[in-house]
Amino acid sequence: MVALVARAVVLALNSGSSSLKYGLYAVEDAVVLLVGGTIETTDDHGHFFDAIERALRGWPAPTVIGHRIVHGGPHRDAHCRIDDAVMADLATACAFAPLHGPASLALIRVAGARYPGVPQVACFDTAFHAGMPDLATTLPIPRAYRASGIRRYGFHGLSCESIVRQLGSELPARLVIAHLGNGASVTAVRDGRSIDTSMGLTPTGGVMMATRTGDLDPGVLLHLLRETGLDAPALATLVDHASGMAGVSGVSGDMRILRAAATDEADLAIRMFERSVCKQVAAMIASLGGADMLVLTGGIGEHDAPTARAIRAGLAWVPGLEIRILPSQEDVQIARHAATLA
Ligand SMILES: Nc1ncnc2c1ncn2[C@@H]1O[C@H](COP(=O)(O)OP(=O)(O)O)[C@@H](O)[C@H]1O
Ligand SMILES: CC(=O)OP(=O)(O)O
Ligand SMILES: [Mg+2]
């Protein structure tokens, strides 16, 4: 019923590194999920839309399609309607997010072909961090490189937005958000705005992740370049796909599989991940000059109780820190923005 009177019916598409999530939302003042699901592949967008079309049968047709776009690049710092100029900027931004960017571009093109005439909206993970001060965005390399867009951007912004919105009037002045999913990042939020975050130019930096290194001594890359002859594609595979908990454990990057495996290597990988999260949270507390609340979110943050326990224990020394677990509602944020911008 609600869909018939909705201001907009939004098909929200969230292509993460390990899954494609879709949701059909009726948006008025409230945002109501009509139907949604997850497809555990990022390879075949034709197959993805076949599955979506089957799921959407009998529901109102989308009036707008909203996409999560991981990297907006140097020229896009606000969510926007997608046109040719935006597509050109997104193609440029692929250089900074090779893990997510090309898949998003392909998804927009296929969506345009499947739903001709339906407007599409880009919702950038980087937008939430666009107002970070120079102290956070500047990387410690010669300043000339900044002109080509090399700086800290920060990601998981839609997730952070959704946490700020869920907290509403309970939003504290000094908040740390730990988004712990397949990708993981930690963000310092002062009065609702990002002032620092753990990911950098790309979603490879910061916290150790499922298959990504997170921060790594740059000397390791130089050593591998010099001594093993690995080229850029091979290094990208190494740092994005073969490292993190998967690389250390030799088992998997999925926390559920690591817990079940219970080998020494899996245990080390998990303890390294937990330590890495605690260290990044402590760094964000330093950036904020203290913290009132830590929110855990993302697949691991929401569902893996032992990780939450380890983080509580690892941060027990922080005075006055309330720790909450909240769901990452990236898709609801996409629906809201798409309805507003269509
Ligand atoms: N019930 C669960 N218990 C423990 N860990 C979980 C559970 N469900 C999901 N996870 C973890 O969350 C990860 C996926 O997180 P999610 O935020 O959904 O990923 P994505 O980056 O694809 O958006 C999985 O790889 C797994 O490590
Ligand atoms: C930015 C990022 O790492 O996204 P995801 O966690 O969805 O892979
Ligand atoms: Mg995600």
Automatic annotation (TrEMBL):
Mg(2+) binds at residues 14, 330. The gene is ackA. It holds the Pfam family Acetate_kinase. Keywords: ATP-binding, Cytoplasm, Kinase, Magnesium, Metal-binding, Nucleotide-binding, Transferase. Mg(2+). Can also accept Mn(2+). It is found in: Cytoplasm. The keyword Glycosyltransferase does not apply. The keyword Kinase applies. SUPFAM superfamilies: Actin-like ATPase domain. PROSITE patterns: ACETATE_KINASE_1, ACETATE_KINASE_2. Pathway: Metabolic intermediate biosynthesis; acetyl-CoA biosynthesis; acetyl-CoA from acetate: step 1/2. Its EC number is 2.7.2.1. Substrate binds at residue 68. Catalyzes the formation of acetyl phosphate from acetate and ATP. Can also catalyze the reverse reaction. Its main location: cytoplasm. ATP binds at residues 21, 179-183, 254-256, 299-303. One of its GO terms (cellular component) is cytosol. Coiled coil: none annotated. The record marks 156, 212 as: Transition state stabilizer. Belongs to the acetokinase family. GO terms for biological process: acetate metabolic process; acetyl-CoA biosynthetic process. Homodimer. One of its GO terms (molecular function) is magnesium ion binding. The active site is at 125 (proton donor/acceptor). Its cofactor is Mg(2+); Mn(2+). It catalyses: acetate + ATP = acetyl phosphate + ADP. This is Acetate kinase.
